[in-house]
Design brief:
Number of domains: 1
CATH architecture: 3-Layer(aba) Sandwich
Number of strands: 9
Largest sheet: 7 strands, parallel
CATH topology: Rossmann fold
Strand content: 5-15%
CATH superfamily: NAD(P)-binding Rossmann-like Domain
Helix content: 25-40%
Radius of gyration: 18 Å
Shape: globular
Number of helices: 11
Structural class: alpha/beta
Length: about 290
């Protein structure tokens, strides 16, 4: 609801804003990847320890970091690996479109295995790296909130919908609390017009992760992983209600390249929908409207 918050909620939000550290030992799947590596730099001093779970070598480790070479598609190995952590931050998986067999094996089964590892090890908190592509087939003129129906723009986006839905199942059945972060464009700075509307810094993403690890009101909760953006497409009041105050601004880091969209073979599709070029993959080229 839009309006002033009652005193109890104001007090709760003030407490949430103070979440700048977690005493939890976390497992970070995909911690060797681009987003995971950048996130570790901000989480290193904010959590007790980070166990990187990845098939790829993460390179030099921090003082409170370790690495286990585990494939998330191997459920038994993953469950064993998670036996000594308090929470899981799940970023592993293909970050772009792939064939259905790879999407099912890694993104879908892998996320299932993460939730199963949490259940088997009595881990009560998961932070799931979802994606804006879970709602990528909304027109750019539509402002989307976490309560709007999912409209994935790709098999990749569909796999993120699966992860969010299964996280809900695992809360309802087992009480595992998950913050689904629909990550926008994660990088050092926005690099095109679309990224300018959905960009997120590593520092702001780390803030959301800490909220996911510690906020008392997380159930199966969905927010958008975006920093301060102007004329954005995503309504992130749910994150603000949890105390999220982005520190970084997309516009302050924008260069001349953000005036233009990246080239696409179907600009009438890519520049109409929020998912951009992901919407173009295997598209037949006909622009369709759909009731919300």
């Amino acid at each position: 609801m839009i309006g002033s918050n009652p005193p109890a909620q104001e007090s709760q939000n003030a407490a949430a804003r103070c979440i700048d550290r977690s005493g939890k030992r976390i497992a970070l799947t995909g911690g060797s990847g681009r987003v995971g590596t950048a996130l570790r730099q901000f989480l290193a001093e904010q959590v007790t320890s980070i166990k990187i779970v990845d098939t790829a070598d993460p390179g030099p480790l921090g003082a409170n970091e370790s690495w286990e070479q585990v494939d998330i598609s191997d459920g038994e190995a993953l469950a064993t690996c998670m036996a000594d952590v308090d929470a899981i931050v799940h970023l592993a998986g293909y970050p772009n479109e792939q064939g259905i067999d790879d999407i099912l094996r890694v993104n879908v089964l892998g996320t299932h295995n993460v939730l199963e590892a949490a259940r088997r090890n009595a881990i009560s908190r998961v932070v799931f790296g979802s994606s804006n592509h879970a709602v990528g087939f909304y027109p750019r003129e539509t402002r989307v909130s976490e309560t709007d129906p999912m409209r994935p723009d790709s098999l990749y986006g569909l796999s993120k919908c699966w992860g969010e839905l299964e996280a809900g199942l695992y809360f309802d059945k087992f009480g595992i609390r998950t913050l689904n972060i629909r990550i926008g464009n994660a990088g050092d700075r926005p690099t095109d017009a679309r990224a300018l509307r959905i960009w997120v810094s590593s520092r702001d993403l780390a803030q959301l992760v800490l909220i996911g690890l510690e906020h008392p009101d997380i159930t199966c909760t969905t927010v958008f992983g975006i920093s301060q953006v102007e004329a954005g497409w995503l309504d992130n009041r749910a994150a603000a209600a949890l105390g999220y105050i982005p520190a970084d601004s997309a516009q302050s880091l924008a260069g001349p390249d953000t005036a233009l969209e990246r080239p696409s073979p179907m600009p009438h599709i890519a520049e109409f929908f929020q998912g951009g070029r992901f919407c173009v993959i295997d598209h037949d080229g006909t622009l369709r409207g759909r009731l919300r």
